[in-house]
Write a structure and sequence with these properties.
Number of strands: 5
Order of helices and strands: EHHEHHEHHEHEH
Structural class: alpha/beta
Strand content: 5-15%
Helix content: 40-55%
Distance between the termini: 23 Å
Largest sheet: 5 strands, parallel
Oligomer: single chain
Length: 166
């Protein structure tokens, strides 16, 4: 896999239900561009609900259709994974005063794991959290992966797809 497309919770929340035009636009993009969005396990857990009234979970539909998947567990024993998690956590906490224990950092850690293992040469991180996206780019650049990582603003990405700008 030379390109890795990592999606966070915010991207799928912003897309809405499979009947929504935003969801359909992202699905169309993924299919046309042969993109499979990879979600860290924690993101998948955040997107699934244990509610008998919910018949269709959007992320499960995307997985069933083949344009999204859940990543293997992070290798916390790899030093680069730990450094990414700590670095992004600090970056976000400093950028917007969020308590450090509330900061999601699996996206950057997953990116670092794949880049360091050579299973990806380019990583795109789709997030609606600006501080998280900028933090991932910054901390990954400090590890020497600056030219290999792109933060994609999830809201702008979806809007561009819906309005036809992409």
């Amino acid at each position: 896999m030379s390109r890795l497309h990592i999606a966070d919770t915010g991207l799928f929340v912003a897309m809405g239900q499979p009947s929504n035009s935003r969801y359909k636009a992202v699905r169309r993009f993924a299919r046309r561009n042969d993109v499979t969005f990879v979600l860290p396990e924690r993101v998948y857990e955040e997107l699934t609900v244990d509610d008998p009234d919910v018949e269709e979970v959007p992320i499960d539909t995307a997985i069933d259709e083949g344009w999204a998947t859940v990543a293997a567990p992070l290798e916390f024993s790899e030093p680069v994974v730990s450094r990414m998690m700590d670095g992004v956590q600090r970056y976000i906490a400093n950028a917007d005063d969020r308590p450090a224990d509330e900061v999601e950092r699996a996206d950057a850690a997953l990116a670092a794991q794949h880049l360091s293992a050579g299973s990806a040469a380019e990583v795109y991180i789709y997030t609606t959290d600006i501080a998280a996206g900028e933090g991932a780019e910054t901390v990954l650049a400090s590890e020497g992966y600056g030219d290999s990582v792109t933060y994609v603003n999830g809201f702008r990405f979806i809007e561009d797809l819906v309005t036809g700008d992409s």
